Amino acid sequence: MKNYGPLPDSFRVYFGTTANGEDRGIYMALLDTSTGQLSEPVRVSNSVRPGFIAIHPNGKHLYATNASGSAHRGEGGFVSAYQIEEPSGVLKDLCTQISGGTGPCHISIDPSGNWLLSAEYHSGNCAVLPILPDGTLGQPTAVRRHSGSGPNSTRQEAAHTHSFNCSPDGRFALATDLGIDKILIYKLNEGSLTPATLPFIQTAPGAGPRHLAFSPDGKFVYVCMELNGTICTYQYMDGTLTEIQTLSTLPSGFSGDNLTSEICLTPDGRFLYVGNRGHESLAIFEVDSNRGKLTFRGHEPTRGKHPRHFNIDPTGTFLIAANAYTDNVVVFRIDKTTGQLEFTGSEITIPDGTCVQFFCIPD
User: Fold this and answer.
1) Is the dihedral of CA 165, 198, 268, 5 positive or negative?
2) What is the rounded CA–CA span in Å between residue 259 and residue 306?
3) Are 276 and 228 within 8 A, CB to CB?
């Protein structure tokens, strides 16, 4: 989403979930920006396990992974498209399309708004699907399957693509593969995928790259490593990555089990946050905008268990975290000087919340 500048009176917030039965679907709530309070959520689509969602830059359509529209379509990977109805914000089913593999877990949209990028965890694929003028999805135009394994026999027995994101200029696409400890780099050209000149970066053995974030100027890429609890900083230029720093997301002396989850920068690029599942916290880092390096600034408890996902509003004022295991969503206000997080007192129930996306309500 673009940076909308001045803080609007409210944001619409959509939540992806992996809930089953009567709780399944995509939910929506309104964030009052004067108080930091979320309204009681409403279900706006009863899609099946829409674990990750993405909103089109035109604000008219929403897409979801692991979804089969309003009914099961059997086993396999699917991505669904919805029209955002105004003024209600309810989602209207448009289509359900094969995703190019099995276990789609992450989607993103390229800067042009013409292509949807999908990461398939179970099959270790990444795929590109065309977004048609009416918002529906065409069949995949490119599918790349990864192979290999890593030292963690439980989680790295095979390739497991965990995210797929476009570079800010739209020329390259980066796939993080948790199973093989690689960040794979592709040239993206009109829906085709070809390996870049440097086709991948190998991470530390057993690191398990999960999600990434580009700096606002596109010069740096930050990757959270799910399995070893670190964040790696890379210099980025024309489809190449050069590692410049690795830091832990955990306090010294912590010995419990932990998995990182989401990674997110404030829109001005001054602060970066990483979710810790196990430590149940958000790690806070300050960013050196010239060198890209991070300085650790503390932890904020997420007031729940298993913070699967969080997001920051386009003005950098609020951070909303979804704790999947305790079904609670929590709102924090961001101190724009220090990056510290202050609990606003707002907390709502979202069953198995796995994704948070902000939407600026049209005038």
Assistant:
1) negative
2) 9
3) no
User: Judging by beta carbons within 10 Å of its beta carbon (0-12, 13-18, 19+), is residue 245 exposed, middle or buried?
Assistant: middle
Q: How far apart are CA 15 and CA 309, in angstroms?
A: 10
Q: Which residues contact 252 (CB under 8 A, 6 or more apart)?
A: none
List the one residue out of 72, 70, 200, 61 whose CA is nearest residue 126: 200
> Does residue 301 have a pLDDT over 50?
yes
3-state secondary structure of 330: strand
How confident is the model over 141-164, as pLDDT tens digits? 999 999 999 999 999 999 999 999
**Reduced to 3 DSSP states, what percent helix, strand and coil does the chain have, rounded to the nearest 5?**
0, 55, 45
Q: Tokens for 231? A: 């964040």
Report in angstroms the alpha-carbon separations of 67 from 7, 46, 95, 187, 210: 33, 10, 10, 28, 21
Peptide linkage before 87 cis (omega within 30 of 0): yes
DSSP state letter for 314? T
Domains of the chain: 10-360 (2.130.10.10)
Whether the CB-CB separation of 130 and 137 falls below 8 Å is answered with: yes
Query: 23 pLDDT exceeds 80?
Result: yes
